[in-house]
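[job 0412] stage=fold_complex status=start
inputs:
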Amino acid sequence: MAKFMKKRSVKAGLPPGSLVFIGDKMAGDAKITIIDYDENGVEGKKASSIDECFPYKNKPSTTWINVDLVHQVEIIEKLGECFHLHPLVLEDILNTDQRPKMEDFSEYLYVVVRMLSCNGGNAKIESEQVSLILGANYLISFQEKEGDVFGPVRERIRGGKGHIRKAGPDYLAYALLDAIVDNYFVVLEKNGERIETLEDQLLTNPNPATLQEIHLLKRDMIFLRKSVWPLREVIAGLAREGSSLISDSTRLYLRDVYDHTIQVIDALETFRDILTGMLEIYLSSINHRLNEIMKLLTIIATIFIPLTFIVGLYGMNFSYMPELKWHWGYPAVLLLMLSISIFMLCFFRKKKWL
Amino acid sequence: MAKFMKKRSVKAGLPPGSLVFIGDKMAGDAKITIIDYDENGVEGKKASSIDECFPYKNKPSTTWINVDLVHQVEIIEKLGECFHLHPLVLEDILNTDQRPKMEDFSEYLYVVVRMLSCNGGNAKIESEQVSLILGANYLISFQEKEGDVFGPVRERIRGGKGHIRKAGPDYLAYALLDAIVDNYFVVLEKNGERIETLEDQLLTNPNPATLQEIHLLKRDMIFLRKSVWPLREVIAGLAREGSSLISDSTRLYLRDVYDHTIQVIDALETFRDILTGMLEIYLSSINHRLNEIMKLLTIIATIFIPLTFIVGLYGMNFSYMPELKWHWGYPAVLLLMLSISIFMLCFFRKKKWL
Amino acid sequence: MAKFMKKRSVKAGLPPGSLVFIGDKMAGDAKITIIDYDENGVEGKKASSIDECFPYKNKPSTTWINVDLVHQVEIIEKLGECFHLHPLVLEDILNTDQRPKMEDFSEYLYVVVRMLSCNGGNAKIESEQVSLILGANYLISFQEKEGDVFGPVRERIRGGKGHIRKAGPDYLAYALLDAIVDNYFVVLEKNGERIETLEDQLLTNPNPATLQEIHLLKRDMIFLRKSVWPLREVIAGLAREGSSLISDSTRLYLRDVYDHTIQVIDALETFRDILTGMLEIYLSSINHRLNEIMKLLTIIATIFIPLTFIVGLYGMNFSYMPELKWHWGYPAVLLLMLSISIFMLCFFRKKKWL
Amino acid sequence: MAKFMKKRSVKAGLPPGSLVFIGDKMAGDAKITIIDYDENGVEGKKASSIDECFPYKNKPSTTWINVDLVHQVEIIEKLGECFHLHPLVLEDILNTDQRPKMEDFSEYLYVVVRMLSCNGGNAKIESEQVSLILGANYLISFQEKEGDVFGPVRERIRGGKGHIRKAGPDYLAYALLDAIVDNYFVVLEKNGERIETLEDQLLTNPNPATLQEIHLLKRDMIFLRKSVWPLREVIAGLAREGSSLISDSTRLYLRDVYDHTIQVIDALETFRDILTGMLEIYLSSINHRLNEIMKLLTIIATIFIPLTFIVGLYGMNFSYMPELKWHWGYPAVLLLMLSISIFMLCFFRKKKWL
Amino acid sequence: MAKFMKKRSVKAGLPPGSLVFIGDKMAGDAKITIIDYDENGVEGKKASSIDECFPYKNKPSTTWINVDLVHQVEIIEKLGECFHLHPLVLEDILNTDQRPKMEDFSEYLYVVVRMLSCNGGNAKIESEQVSLILGANYLISFQEKEGDVFGPVRERIRGGKGHIRKAGPDYLAYALLDAIVDNYFVVLEKNGERIETLEDQLLTNPNPATLQEIHLLKRDMIFLRKSVWPLREVIAGLAREGSSLISDSTRLYLRDVYDHTIQVIDALETFRDILTGMLEIYLSSINHRLNEIMKLLTIIATIFIPLTFIVGLYGMNFSYMPELKWHWGYPAVLLLMLSISIFMLCFFRKKKWL
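[job 0412] stage=fold_complex status=done
writing structure:
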């Protein structure tokens, strides 16, 4: 989010299906891992070359091919050839600023979503594009960076825990989407904590940094919204659509993920409303402060201005000012000024300004 | 609402259907009560163990099993096994931050709603998740805490008053939903009273605490809205849907509850509009006050500044200032200053500033 | 509108169909009037007891039974029994905070709308719930209070003017709805006049009372909106729906009423936009005033502060201040101060502050 | 737009179809003009009495009857009888505050739209209701006032230019609607010029009159919106609907008018957005000005307040003030004050306040 | 965008299909270029007269006729005759303020879109209307000005790169639309950079010019929105509609362009949200500044006002003021004033105003 847009303009004018990576190029080569499993066993390995993936295409067992660091165009190209992927799909995999979407090519489903993560202490949201190709007996996933939220899914495949080893690649796709959406809650909770901290700050010591922070959080919410709203449609599409690649039992699980995305959206809307309210509180508390200061100025000025006039009056050098000669003139003036002050303080108290 | 989100992140990575309680854990064990009734009689008891519920599964009479303190995973698990509930349903029962929803599993309907209550004097809204499993001849309800709004329904079953003993579990589900929605009106009325109090305060003595209160009320409205809007869809779904578990006569009653939820939503929208109006009034009354103070300052300063200048003028120590020697110099200056003051007061009155 | 909500909570926990009056109880007993008419004649009478209505149920002529002061539960109950009304309908008749709605019970249609009136000079809007039961040859109307806008309709029935005596109870229902909607225009016009008065006030002498009035008007608009929007749906439903109780020729007239409700809604939206604009004008005119006052303060202070400094300077008591001894010192200082004032006034005029 | 609403209340209580004129009564009698034409010829005349129109009803050639000054009820009544118009249609023709709408009475179509015009220099929008009755071989148009935008259409009929003489009354109706919508562009352009003028004024010399003008323009936009939005539906309805009175080739032209109304709406929305932006600019430029004034006050006051204190200090009359006796005391104090002033000016410059 | 509207009023009253150019007339004659190609070869030439286009009409190869500088009415007229275009289409080609739209005339499709470009350094958006006529074996494009974004498409045709030479005019239309939408990203990126620059400025030195710039950007966003939203519908229509002129394989590519327009809309909405946030930050940072200035004034005034009073007090000329005679009177007063100042500074620090 440092920049508002990725450099898409480099592609202007190229023919459709031109494979050009758009995004922040990571250092290093693409990392390909293959996990092949069925009810009876599981086999996992790191592929040193893309060619190692090809034999799995027609194996009846479920194969999960994961490609990290998606920026190497030639690897995507080879995979595309082997699995007969449409050039526009390959293009979309490489354009890492896709909006979440789902496309049905009958032989395979193409799904793009955004995987979010919060790194370290400052709750900065990192976003990464994840593309899934769901075929009859394989699932290919593409990630922008190394590191993901799929660790527990791998564990479950390896450990044979749960339903996952018995089900096909559609259930695997569900598991990955579920892991991604579950991580949205982690991100939301971190943001919820930021908001709570901010709220305390708002009550004790509101300052322009608070405002800056509120606006940053609001922008993060806008950004999250842009990822989650289309995700909702994607998952609704998967749960509804008549594709034969997704079994009915998996659809039930997808409906569950759908509910979770709705909850994420609900939380986002609530956060947005809360942030809007906080903005209003900030502005009016700043306003309130100004009023307090103005009030003090008024009171002090209003009390001293007449007094200063009186002392100035008796500082005049007229030859004939009888009061100046009176013996009790000075104490009388002091008394007069004291009573003026007291009268004014009472007036202000009556007006509830003090 | 102390926290903006419940800790859902503990579940990230777990396989679907993992039974983990999410919410505020209450002290104590789950309390299970069974009420079994038909037209001829009613039998109610506290079950010391979950196994006591199982015989009622196939009894033709209507059985209402109520589970308070839902956090004991093993009880939910056993009930799920006995009544053949889908693992995702069990998971949702334990996740107490569900959005109200209705799911049709053909054998049973699963309904989640939020039960609201206002405890004691300060109209603080308490919210609790209530899950209902509606089968052919049983209804299971799950609550987060002890204490609910179902007392009158139990009375009606025991007393045999009204239609309830003659009807099946669908009518019982309706009665519970009706009790919950009726309680929304209680909560709304308490909030209506808070708004009225606040409005008086706004006119007599607006202060930052008023603002804080308006924002708290607004947030409560947002929170209520999040509970009621999906509830509307849930009840519309029950009244419309072609499930054989709900009879046509009950649907008529559900339409009535539906009307009530619409009224709740209407009242919420009105409250929100009123609160927004109050916010505007607050801000402009604060502004008005500042103006009043500024006006006073201006008037006092504007009157005394020239006078102070004049007395300073005749306080100068020049050797040759003829006025100082005049016998009527002092009274003449006093007269001059008096007329300046009067002129200014008239000017301000003409400008309508006084 | 004194209170934001009617006390609905008294009914929480009661079984559905419990007949409890909710609303402001009027003094006095229910007043029942019966008008029975067909093409050939008309018969009108005040019924001293509800039983007098029953014979009209099966008479082929059109019967209009009007019940004023609806709070007597037993009368509603008896009528319900006689005309076979559903308990939920009776309940809704007694709950005088219903949202306008239309329900088709095949034997009869149940319609709830709000009748508005402006009493006396101050354009205070009074609202009253009117329930209509439209059967094959009868129409029953229920009102909260005595006094209504149906006078001209009664006249037309008695006088045999227009189409009304030839048509059935569906046309009568139309005539009543038309009278109610026509009265909305009267209410709107009164409010339009209030807005015009307010607008004049805004330009000549804006004060906090103006603001208060704008907000009151805005709230009235919110309130009207709540009555008219669902009314629109009700009338659209009557004009569209396939109920055999409404003839095709009457539907044409209902379409006309529908157009009128759209016009009412249009006027309401316009009023709301105008009021929002007036609010903005108010706030900025108040702001403008503050600016004017600030400008004056600045100008007076800025002119006199340097002058006061100069006279202070020559009021110092240093032994060696050569200027004080000069013969033309005093006039020179006076001249200096005069030129400073003139320079400043020119500066302000150049800056367009004066 | 002088008044927000026309006096509709005079009709409350009258039976439907009562012919009462609602609107601003013009002086003079209704003017009726008849133009009868087919491919071969054209005949135009002013009718001195309404009876002259009747023979044209069954003539196979296309007849356009135009009625200016619609307030004479008896003329409308006679026309209605002759052409078998529904009483509600006659009523709507006389109520000149109709919302644009289209109604299909199978024998004829009834269309109401608003014709706008900008008179003279000040771009004041005048609005007039135009009703069209489109029959199989006639078109009747009703206008509130004399003077319209149909001049070019009359020219085309007389000159036989374009398609118009060959086509029927449906094409004539299209031509009139097209002329009306084309005039909307004229009105919009005049308003666009007003906005441009206002924008210049906003940058050079914003004052409360500018604000007033912005709000007037905004209200004009609201008013235009109310005319154009339903017009869009009307024309969409004519282009779509299955009425046999409109030929397919005319529908194509109506689609073109439809595109124009969309463009009018687009322009209106843009104008509204621009006006809202101008409002924000106005408010913040006013605010900016206040800040400038405040800053000057602060700087002058902050510089002189300490200086005035110092000169006051040495104006004290203590017997033992050694500085007063020093020979260089006076120049030293002057120097001190000079350095304080310079320091402060530097401080303000550093803070970017100067 | 210098003017808010193009002069459409010149056409008011003209018959439909009147060919009048509306827009900014460019210097020079229309430039017509013809590119005719199939799989085997390509032929391109500049046509000196419009008649050279006619032979291509029935050639089986794909012909692309491009007309720059569309303001020459007679050329459009001749082309229209030759290719049997509807007069309303010719009219729309000449009216360069069309809203993007698509119309199906079965023989050909008519598409209007807006082509955007950013010229030079200042990211000023230039907009131009592009009309496409897509026939069975030809595509005619009309542009307002010389210079376009179709260079790469021409390259691809000439070089025979990609799919384009094998496909028909539908694919060519897609390629042109793709080039136009790709250029939207270029425009968006430039605006993104403007926003980033503005954001820096907002944090370091907010001034009224910043505000002006924010509003200009906002207006640009409104303008872009008006071009892109209907474009989305146009492309959705092309991808969906059952026209036989577009092959299924091309529809797949159009779906890709559709995704891009959605991304453009997403980016626009994000920009708008960011700009709104920047406006709020601007206003509150300006407010914050005023507060800072006010605080300083208060502190300085509040400290010096009492001190000035005290020195005035001992400047009075009363005969009997014992303090004046005391030897330590002067130092005592100095000490008193020092302690008052220190006390006040501590008070302000405690209040967190310093």
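[job 0412] summary: Chain D has two domains: 10-284, 287-350.
[job 0412] exit 0
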